[in-house]
Amino acid sequence: MTGALFTIPLWADLLAVAVGSLQGALFAAQFRDRRLDLLGVALIGIATGFGGGIVRDVLLGQVPAALDSNGYLPVATASALAGMLLERLFQRLRHLITVLDALTIGLFGAIGTTKALALGLPEIPAIFLGVISAVGGSILRDMLLNVPIALMSVGSLYAVAALAGSASLVLLVGLGADILIAAAVCVAVTFVVRVLAVLFKWTLPEQIAIRRRQRPIAPGTGNIPLPGDGRD
Q1: Strand partners, 224
Q2: Number of other residues whose CB lies within 10 A of the CB of residue 18
Q3: Could you read off the pLDDT of 68-81 as tens digits, one per residue?
Q4: What is the pTM for the complete model shown?
Q5: Would you give the DSSP letter of residue 37?
């Protein structure tokens, strides 16, 4: 499957990067046991803001789009530093930032998925690249901070929202829909799933430890198992 490439204006892309970088800085600020200097915060912001796009383009064997303009690095750095210096203010606006972040991952997911399709990748890998574009920055952020990756913990369906959006885009493109309509649906689906998951605290089922049922030990035989327990 191939398709046209969905693009957004540079200012919108920079705004999405700014929101991602701001989120990264606010996330890092909650760890009171580790203090980051200005450079550390800037790196966290850069990784969160467009890390997913860099991973996507590297996997596609292309020069990362973030390196094609002088605007991305300064915007990501400034947003991260603003998040650190004005943390209390932005914490009060956390609901607005959550809404903007949901919109951002939808945009990044649509861009990544259509880029993969335009290069001729099959549907499933295209969806995977869309999800990587949307949430790859968060993965890099957690790795840099040496904390458990949030996407693998019980949370509010961050990656699932991106997956639903990217899958809907691929489905619509396969049905012959216009790329702009498919991308708009992708953003809308991602946005709705993400926001509803935050509001209603939706999560995936938590991991449950599976323990092997122990058979009783024959009286007077010490550690010798009874016949039929699979170890004799």
Answers
A1: none
A2: 22
A3: 889 999 999 999 99
A4: 0.81
A5: -
